[in-house]
Amino acid sequence: MNTIPGFWDVGPHAPFPVEDTWQKFVRHIGGTVVEDGLPNPRKFENADFYFPDTQIIAELKEIQTEFSESQSFVTGFGELMERVIRDDPAWRPALFGGDGRFPPWFRSEFIRLFRPPISRVLKKANRQIRDTKEFFGIRASKGVLLFVNDGFQSLGPEPIQALACSLLADSYSSIDCFIYLTANSYVSVPGDSTPRLVWAPVYSDRAPEDLQEQINHLGRSWFDFIETLCGPYTDRVETDDMDAIAGAEAIRLPKT
Length: 256
Fold this sequence. Notes:
Elements: H1 18-28, E1 32-33, E2 49-51, E3 56-63, H2 71-87, H3 106-112, H4 115-136, E4 142-149, H5 157-170, E5 177-182, E6 186-188, E7 199-203, H6 211-230, E8 249-251
Parallel strand pairs: 3-4, 4-5
Antiparallel strand pairs: 1-2, 2-3, 5-7, 6-8
Helix pairs in contact: 4-5
């Protein structure tokens, strides 16, 4: 978690409702909000959006849960710390006079604790995209998961992307692209003094060649749209460099 003294006295913009804003955005650019075309009551859990021009079916998941507060995580983390002490009985956190450095294996095992909750998100989105495709008889569609991080601050975007890539390699065949993005929360990127909103896609090996440019265009349009809500950006950066967000961390905004 990144906290920077004096970084902000107040948050950068008033929070906006993510799902409602995405619905307005999708309609604005000529896409379809899937629930608009479904009878009530609905007989299945549908994906959120369909873009006819690109044949993209997208499911939005707004993550407001801090996964590290779950009992399963607390138990798993406790077991990791027991292993640290078992390997080095003299280990102490900096608060208690130690150097606080963890052994080399610790980071990967710590990240692994988040695999189950992220897997559950992907599993549900995969089913919703698949069932929506079948309901409307859409054959050559591309599935996209919009993973909007709006409260999960224990991990930065890079390890979350890595977990998603690992999970998509062998499972969840209806998801061709996983997009990590932020809307009401920001990240701090090493060497960059500007707090950033992020749009960071990764693709499965199954993704068609034209999907990357379509997703890039969608991202540009999204940032154009929310700029009308939040005011002008300090600056905008677009890059294909996968290392651009390496080491980025969530910024905890002050409570207002």
